[in-house]
Amino acid sequence: MSTIPVHEWTLREAADRIRSGGVSSRELTEAILGRIAAINPKINAWVTVIPEKAMAQAAVFDEMQARGESAGPLHGVPVGLKDIFCTKGIKTTCGSRILHNFVPPYDAAVTERVLCAGAVLLGKQNMDEFAMGSSTETSFFGNTLNPWDPSRIPGGSSGGTAAAVASAMCFAAMGTDTGGSIRQPASLCGVVGLKPTYGRVSRYGMIAFASSLDQGGPVTRTVADAALMLGIVAGHDRRDSTSLDLPVPDYDAALGRDVKGLRVGLPKEYFEGEGLDPQVRAAVDRALAALVAAGAEAVEVSLPHTEYALSTYYLIAPAEASSNLARYDGVRYGHRAEGTSGLIEMMSKTRAEGFGPEVKRRIMIGTYALSAGYYEAFYGKAQKVRTLIRRDFDAAFQKADVLLTPTAPTPAFRIGEKTDDPLTMYLSDIYTIPCNLAGIPGISVPCGMSSEGLPIGAQLLANHFREETLLTAAGAIERAIPLPRVAPFKG
After folding, report:
1. Hey, which residues does 487 pair with through a beta bridge?
2. Global model pTM greater than 0.90
């Protein structure tokens, strides 16, 4: 019997232990709920925890186990969801006051697939309001802290998700990525974060920020666990018009492959300039050395329009957000302002009260970019540059099978350090944003630690629907550079 504490098991280990009868779902769920009760008040990774429902779910799975039945690959294993996925009968806030009391009447597609795989849902995880942020400091429910150093941010917008996985308050979780919101917090919290190809995972029931960029994906402590979760949530969904009807590969098969002959591209634009921390550069260099030592070939590639990616993103994403967030008017659901005399005043006051400063900033930017007389000059031009960025990646993948870059330019920065400087904050996603604009898949895998004991992640990018290549390369890095899977936070 392993001496590793149960909360430090990987997702696969937990599933195997339940399947073999080594532990019951109730025992495992109770242990993780106890850890949440002890740690979450100091980390604030969870917005909503549902202990009674979780234990009831676990009891059902134990009864099935006793009958020799299985609910699926996650049978009885406790997991979490970012509070952006609708959950029937469970509050879904999107980190915003305007949805602080919203209880959806249906499940998101991701929720359905995770539950159908047999998972025990523990609750919903904290996030930047409407996924707008890089530090989980814009949440109406307060900051999430980084479990490696509580004076630091965990990244965002899936900061609560990454912090919960890193501190072993669940075995895996699902986040969303619009401009790096899975990969960047995964890097800063020392876990694995995978953003699939746009259209690979259904967006049905996933509260929209920017519809042409949003994509759900797993946050786990190992590459193998990310492959397991991706296999569960990937696939066509007729309720999402952007969901592609393509076969889902056997992602597990990619885990055992070697990287001999793999062409690893190094985009020169990602390693130039003054913003890249030398410790991050050194850690990514070690990841490259690990791949080369395993038989991969390093090649230099160019993504010449990278310098325009940030500007392009911050026109397209706010423009789509200004359209998507127009539905929050206080009429049908969510917060409604009181003491108003008419519809227009009620809608205006509701939005003024319900949205935080960052959301208001992006709505105003987006509305301006879409306004008459400015549409073509701003939004239209941004869409054209987006096409050029996608073509850059197409050309790069003619020379390379996978691209290796930093995930974030620095390790986790201190809470409050960048809140008064939005542009500096936006630069936190400079290496992750192009991936979303092109719709390609990306993964962040731990590759080192800073001198202050903070995690550093390497980002791997591949062509559309080449998640298997990402998993193969990420697995090679993980094996060559073993690092702690759980933050040492004791509460």
Report:
1. none
2. yes
Average pLDDT estimate for 378-384: 96
The first and second tokens of residue 215, run together, are 């994509």
Measured CA to CA, the distance from residue 424 to residue 17 in angstroms comes to: 45
Phi-psi region of 330 (alpha: psi -120 to 50; beta: other; left: phi over 0): left
Q: Where are the domains of the chain?
A: 6-258, 307-382
Question: Quick one: residue 317, left, alpha or beta (phi over 0 = left, psi -120 to 50 = alpha)?
Answer: alpha
Q: Which residue has the tokens 């634009």?
A: 269
List, for residues 361-377, the tens digit of each pLDDT value. Answer: 999 999 999 998 889 99
Amino acid at 440: I
Over residues 248-271, the mean pLDDT reads 96
Domain at 6-258, CATH homologous superfamily:
Amidase signature (AS) domain (3.90.1300.10)
Distance from C-alpha of 422 to C-alpha of 133, rounded to nearest angstrom: 9
Residue 216, beta-bridge partner list: 176
Catalytic residue list: 82, 157, 181
- Residue 234 pairs with which residues in a beta bridge? 201
CA distance 161 to 136: 10
